[in-house]
Amino acid sequence: MKPGSKPTIAISMGDPAGIGPEIIVKALADTDVAAMANWVIVGDGDIWRKTVAHSRTVVPIDIVSNVSHAASPGRFVLLDCGGNDCSPPQT
After folding, report:
1. What is the C-alpha radius of gyration for the chain, rounded to an integer number of angstroms?
2. Are 41 and 13 in contact (CB under 8 A)?
3. What would the mean pLDDT of 51-59 be, rounded to a whole number?
4. Average pLDDT for residues 67-91, to the nearest whole number?
């Protein structure tokens, strides 16, 4: 990693019915936490939208089906599994 660059950290939303999505929304709304890394959230986009709406929090995020499609600086990325398996392909 280059000096001054931020790590990229991926985090799973966990159980959609659990508290993981709410904790992630609240954490990323904290500017100190947000500035620590380039965050990639892995989970269900619909659950994310509902959680953000319920929390009345603004979290700038790009919801993508492939993480290589995310290129907006200053925004978080949500890899939308949409209830599907987001595992990398087996080689």
Report:
1. 13
2. yes
3. 90
4. 71
